[in-house]
Amino acid sequence: MKTLEELNAVKEQYEGLVNFRRIGHAEDAVIDKKYRLHVLVCAGTGCTSSGSLKIIDKLNEELKANNIENEVKVVKTGCHGLCALGPLMIVYPEGAFYSRLEIEHIPEIVKKHFVEGNVCKEYLYKETVLEDGSVQPMNNTDFYRSQKRVALRNCGVINPEDINEYIGTGGYQAIAKVLQTMKPEDVIQVMLDSGLRGRGGAGFPTGLKWKFAAASVNEQKYVCCNADEGDPGAFMDRSVLEGDPHVVLEAMSIAGYAIGANQGYIYVRAEYPIAVERLNIAIKQARDAGLLGKDILGTGFDFDIDLRLGAGAFVCGEETALMTSIEGNRGEPRPRPPFPAVKGLFAKPTILNNVETYANIPKIIMQGAQWFASMGTEKSKGTKVFALGGKINNTGLVEIPMGTTLRTVIEEIGGGIPNGKKFKAAQTGGPSGGCIPVENMDVEIDYDNLIAIGSMMGSGGLIVMDEDNCMVDIAKFFLEFTVDESCGKCTPCREGTKRMLEILDRITEGKGKMEDIDELQELAAFIKSNALCGLGQTAPNPVLSTLRYFKDEYIAHVKDKKCPAGVCKNLLTFKIDPEKCIGCTKCAKNCPVDAIIGEKKKVHEIDTSKCIKCGTCLDGCKKDAIYKE
Amino acid sequence: MAIKKSAVPFKGTKEQEAKLHEVIAGLKEEQGCLMPIMQQAQDIYGYLPIEVQKIIADDLEIPIEKIYGVATFYAQFRLQPTGEYRISVCLGTACYVKGSGPILDKLKQLLQIDIDECTPDGKFSLEACRCIGACGLAPVLTVNEEVYGRLTLEDIPGIIEKYSN
Amino acid sequence: MENVTVKINGMDVVVPAGSTVLEAARIAGIDIPTLCYLKEVNEIGACRMCVVEVKGAKTLVTACVYPVNDGMEIFTNTKKVRDSRKRNLQLLLASHDRQCLSCVASARCEFQTLCQEYGVEDAGVYDGARNEYELDTSAAHMVRDNNKCILCRRCVAVCDKVQGIGVIGSNGRGFATSIGQAFEMDLADTSCVSCGQCIAVCPTGALYEKDYTEQVFEAIEDPEKTVLVQAAPAVRAALGEEFGLPIGTDTQGKLAASLRRLGFDKVFDTVFSADLTIMEEATEFLDRVKNGGTLPLITSCSPGWVKYCEHYFPDMTENLSSCKSPQQMFGAVAKTYYAQKMGLDPKNIVMVSVMPCTAKKFEVGREDQCAAGEGIADVDIAITTRELAYMIKRAGIKFNELPDEEFDNPLGVGTGAGVIFGATGGVMEAALRTAYETLTGSEPASLDFVDVRGTDGIKEASYEIAGMNIKVAVASGLANAKKLLKAVKNGEADYQFIEIMGCPGGCVNGGGQPKQPASVRNFVDIQKLRGQVLYGLDKANPMRKSHENPEIKTIYKEFFGEPGSEKAHHILHTSYVKRGVNSNI
Ligand SMILES: Cc1cc2nc3c(=O)[nH]c(=O)nc-3n(C[C@H](O)[C@H](O)[C@H](O)COP(=O)(O)O)c2cc1C
Ligand code: SF4
Ligand code: SF4
Ligand code: SF4
Ligand code: SF4
Ligand code: SF4
Ligand code: SF4
Ligand code: SF4
Ligand code: SF4
Ligand code: FES
Ligand code: FES
Ligand code: FES
């Protein structure tokens, strides 16, 4: 593609194709002349692992068998968000939303729906089928109603392996606009005005970051993309990379133009093979189309992008560590200043932004700063994607406007807590973040509010916990993670987090003293203000926030030697209820340490001094006679 | 302390080496090429033993320690090959008190390897794990996906025998 | 340079723009403790000992790497700062093998000192899991004890950046991080050149030279043995530091006196064999120039450099002078010429050398260093300046109160040319003095060849001597050597004569010299101060050319005949091994 005209020609050609799949366009969708139906099958990581590729094979087979392979277009898309219900399939023009598909369903769906035109309601996502039997668009369901898809706008809509579909959605128009009508400083001004803040964790204003890098004078500068997504349980960035890779390439080019860089690197975790593959395809297609490389759109602007794969180190998500890693070293953070905007990758001025941050940018350029700034709260604009997980009914990926309350996310979008259990807390920010207790459920989610209540936005992991979770155990879990992932360079983090973990271990084993709680607090404060990088500076947060809201649980462990949630093994005793036990001897036979004594048909008893609390007996007793205390 | 070479004799072929030299030659001039080279080397050989790290060190003219430092920093790089059969002994509490320690020792003795090592013929590698949730069968070990429980020391030679051919 | 004004603990201080907080505080007369920082070598901000409070900063700030800006308000001594530093030390202590009483570093350990200054009253508060490491005693010159390592990485940075070698580095990560060699191989199996620069910068007792002081005492006490000692030029420029004398104090006289009081049978001076080296090397040089031998000729006095050449530039070992180092020449002469002259059986001579150097410990065990016959090493025991200081202290000798004494004859006579061997450029200058006179038959206008003096890493000069244009280069520190040799190999430079010293600044800054803490190294140019001692001795010496040394004249007359003679070759020259890098894997 040498010119804007050529780009626009492709856009016109494919616009209809992709608009055919917009929800709400179902009625007036006549634009695609070739295919009668578009069948979008999710091929994100979630659905792939639940078997969506086999579904696609089966679909193709059945379409052939019914001789309609030329009337129905099957599209492999990225994630739709409701991964827990995968494999997912949406059929347009109806917008019929099939969930939990099984291979056996396919022949029936092809025949009844695709050939005969009758949607198979029994296989649809049940929320889309109303009581009166009518089918509503998925946008009206609880899960999607309060969401607003900006960063994820193309995920699940287009084929990520086809650049033309991206162009059909208006893709690469933003870089064209920037190159032809804007000066670098105009671009930066738009970013500043939009109020976009980094989605990778810290929430630093993107425009400001670009401004600093633009101000550094150097022949060589770099644009980097943080696709390392190390927070366990978070997969927002993965979904963008898998579902809409070109948006990242386009946004990085825009950044390159704004700061004066002509080379970009995407640092992506090697644990995301599908994302890596789609990025490779996207880069190749963009290069072939002339949208990456030399003289883009005939404007004289050069910009290219290379991939670098991580190798399993959480700390490499930290910006200086990421750069050290790209340079081919142990991914150890460097002290700042100098800041990357002055001296970053290969000692050149560099900006680093997160995948989701980039995903917002082309749209901001096209729709304007005001449009973006109109969403969200005063200091946090736009939307945020969260990976909703833990004790919640609708686990999956959600994108909400900043300022949505946690209650909406959990009760409406998430569908509440399973099994009628009580909500205890939500954890955001992963190993750097903290817990939000029930009393803060109505806080509007934005960067500053979360900080104020002792948590943080983080990259978007949102783990829900119920009454069965022990908060000391949760704190320990996260600390174990940071201890494992500490790079070991600086003393406070290398030595300090390890000692905090040892204290927590003692507490959960019932060997804690009240002074230990003070010591935890002091060590935490020390590590936060003395560690070299963000990993260490935030590592104590899960401990601090659980101490803040759930100190009574700590005290119960220390003083009463009890774990109120019944999680910490060493504080439990297994007992047999003599009323219930029928003396079947099963437990005694199964106990690995022979801790259960009792004769046949007589009440059994557990020798607590021998019991190692493995739980085998409890799981096995048919009479529910065994309980823990 | 002698050089901690892998117990598995290095079985790299001429073709593998040629391929590695080629990979290095192709990337050598690029800035920050070390990790991509190591990643591809691991694809070629399955792991990064001293012999492979030496080739990289010599071709790039950098200290082998630098490569080793990188290899031991990232979880993904392996210094030991995994065997065809991965024997994993549970050292969780239940298994431990029922004698999984001696079982592990027996395995080490019979296979002549340590934890996280692989036998010279590439057949077996040995690892220890924490509770796999089969405490009722303690002590347990797994060979690839297969679980063996209620083990006694006498069972061990038989299990190895089963996979030896 | 531009200045900025900062407020430190409430006081306005004007400092050059671009200074670090550490430097600014120093200007204000305030010391900030450091552990990992080594100026221009290790600026990684890792240990977090140097934290200070800066108004407006979210966290504490590390003074060592944080640049000041105008109007910055810094607090170096608040409760928060003191508590942080103390807690930092306590955390390090929990992972530390706290065996001060039996630790070589005790009383001069930077870590120990800080624990004391910060009132660490409970070293065991955070005791828990601790990594345990085997000692690595494989190398000839040193011991590595990771149990005492605080992971400051100064050694790593010096080995990699200053020496360009990088055989040690950080391995593993997190709590399991440790310093070591690839695949935990023995240090002896690596291409370590034994320079000991890592020891010199280690703030703790994790790295130390192999100690042979007891062997020396035993030899002295053995009535069967004649124990001779030689002391290298650089030793006299630094030994006083071990006894609290200022850096740059000349202790030549006290050195001789202390050795004598330790009971050595004869107290000799390596400066003598330095002069001998010049005779041989200058002859070899002129021979190569005249007869088309391999050029450039490169000096071979520094065993650290020689080992480096063998490992990293094996195809350039032909360029090395075949002369043994002065230490080895000395031993060779002592066990042949001197033994013969005194009627001693060389087998009963114990030759001890006191060196600024750890590589000399490796050198004494090299092949082809047995002039008096198979199995009779030229030098038996090489000890460092530091070890000599231990001996002096152990023997109860009040060093600072010693009178100045002379070395014994005949092997204690040396010239000013020989004494400057201890500083970078010294060998070159000494050689030029003799070569000039040999070629022209007259003395140069000035004996000071200032172009090759000074502590720059690489120096070059060219001289018109007897119609010949002689281009020379001098390098010290092996990273500099590498740069220079690459240029030679690529044909970008053509020199006829090159001097290379393994240690930056030459032997005055050798790996066996008294250790100076980073708080001194970062602010004082110890290479220069120690070097000045040697140039002062040269200036004060009436004999400033090696060939003027009367004992040198005698030895050639009585024993060798002439420089480069067959006998001289047999006794004073040696051969090299092409070792290569990683060739043992
Ligand atoms: C320990 C640590 C891990 C991080 N991991 C990630 C990550 O996986 N992905 C990410 O985008 N940002 C991560 N960050 C934040 C980045 O350092 C950086 O702030 C961000 O990528 C900048 O992009 P943004 O301004 O667009 O958010 C991490 C930070 C720390 C301290
Ligand atoms: S805080 Fe932790 S991860 Fe960060 S530099 Fe220090 S040790 Fe490494
Ligand atoms: S399994 Fe249950 S019922 Fe049977 S003996 Fe045990 S406790 Fe009693
Ligand atoms: S919990 Fe496990 S160890 Fe304890 S009694 Fe039950 S089976 Fe035995
Ligand atoms: S290294 Fe220092 S602190 Fe450690 S034992 Fe030795 S003297 Fe004591
Ligand atoms: S310093 Fe203290 S502990 Fe050490 S020897 Fe003296 S009194 Fe004992
Ligand atoms: S002695 Fe020299 S070469 Fe050897 S490890 Fe130390 S600094 Fe490196
Ligand atoms: S050995 Fe010494 S210099 Fe090296 S990291 Fe350890 S304490 Fe620092
Ligand atoms: S420069 Fe001197 S101290 Fe250093 S290795 Fe060479 S001879 Fe030894
Ligand atoms: S992967 Fe299919 S919906 Fe998320
Ligand atoms: S402890 Fe071994 S299976 Fe649970
Ligand atoms: S961090 Fe400043 S001296 Fe170590």
UniProtKB/TrEMBL annotation, chain A:
Q: Which Gene3D superfamilies does the UniProt entry name for this protein? A: 3.10.20.600, 3.30.70.20, 6.10.250.1450, Glutaredoxin, NADH-ubiquinone oxidoreductase 51kDa subunit, NADH-ubiquinone oxidoreductase 51kDa subunit, iron-sulphur binding domain
Signal peptide per UniProt: none
Identify the SMART domains for this entry.
NADH_4Fe-4S
Cited InterPro entries: 4Fe4S_Fe-S-bd, 4Fe4S_Fe_S_CS, NADH-UbQ_OxRdtase_51kDa_CS, Nuo51_FMN-bd, Nuo51_FMN-bd_sf, Nuop51_4Fe4S-bd, Nuop51_4Fe4S-bd_sf, Soluble_ligand-bd
Q: Which PROSITE patterns match?
A: 4FE4S_FER_1, 4FE4S_FER_2, COMPLEX1_51K_2
The answer to keyword Metal-binding applying to this record is: yes
Family listed: Belongs to the complex I 51 kDa subunit family.
Name listed for the protein in its UniProt record: NAD(P)-dependent iron-only hydrogenase diaphorase component flavoprotein
Automatic annotation (TrEMBL), chain B:
* UniProt keyword annotation of Transport present: no
For activity, the cofactor(s) needed are: [2Fe-2S] cluster
UniProt keywords, alphabetically: 2Fe-2S, Iron, Iron-sulfur, Metal-binding
| Family matches, as InterPro entries | NADP_DH_HndA-like (IPR028431), NuoE-like (IPR002023), NuoE_dom (IPR042128), NuoE_N (IPR041921), Thioredoxin-like_sf (IPR036249)
What does this protein's record comment on cofactor binding? Binds 1 [2Fe-2S] cluster.
Keyword Metal-binding present in the record's keywords: the answer is yes
Give residues annotated as binding [2Fe-2S] cluster: 90, 95, 131, 135
Q: Which GO terms describe its molecular function?
A: 2 iron, 2 sulfur cluster binding; metal ion binding; oxidoreductase activity
Query: What protein family does this chain belong to?
Result: Belongs to the complex I 24 kDa subunit family.
Put simply, this protein is called: NAD(P)-dependent iron-only hydrogenase diaphorase component iron-sulfur protein
Name its species.
Answer: Acetitomaculum ruminis DSM 5522
Q: What is the lineage of its organism?
A: Bacteria, Bacillati, Bacillota, Clostridia, Lachnospirales
UniProtKB/TrEMBL annotation, chain C:
Query: So which domain of life are we looking at?
Result: Bacteria
Hey, which family's this protein in?
Belongs to the complex I 75 kDa subunit family.
Q: Which UniProt keywords apply?
A: 2Fe-2S, 4Fe-4S, Iron, Iron-sulfur, Membrane, Metal-binding, NAD, Repeat, Translocase
Segments forming domain 4Fe-4S ferredoxin-type = 140-170, 181-212
CDD domains (alphabetical)? fer2
Q: Which PANTHER family match?
A: NITRATE, FORMATE, IRON DEHYDROGENASE (PTHR11615)
Domain 2Fe-2S ferredoxin-type residue range list: 2-80
Its GO biological process annotations read: ATP synthesis coupled electron transport
Q: Which GO terms describe its molecular function?
A: 2 iron, 2 sulfur cluster binding; 4 iron, 4 sulfur cluster binding; ferredoxin hydrogenase activity; iron ion binding; NADH dehydrogenase (ubiquinone) activity
Q: Name one Pfam family in it.
A: NADH-G_4Fe-4S_3
Q: Which SMART domains match?
A: Fe_hyd_SSU, NADH-G_4Fe-4S_3
Name its cellular compartments.
Membrane
Q: Which Gene3D superfamilies match?
A: 3.10.20.740, 3.30.70.20, 3.40.50.1780, Fe-only Hydrogenase (Larger Subunit), Chain L, domain 3 (3.40.950.10), Iron hydrogenase, small subunit (4.10.260.20)
Question: Quick one: a GO cellular component term?
Answer: membrane
Q: What is its main location?
A: membrane
The protein depicted here goes by the name: NAD(P)-dependent iron-only hydrogenase catalytic subunit
Q: Where is the 4Fe-4S His(Cys)3-ligated-type domain?
A: 80-119
Which cofactor is recorded for it? [4Fe-4S] cluster; [2Fe-2S] cluster
* Listed SUPFAM superfamilies: 2Fe-2S ferredoxin-like (SSF54292), 4Fe-4S ferredoxins (SSF54862), Fe-only hydrogenase (SSF53920)
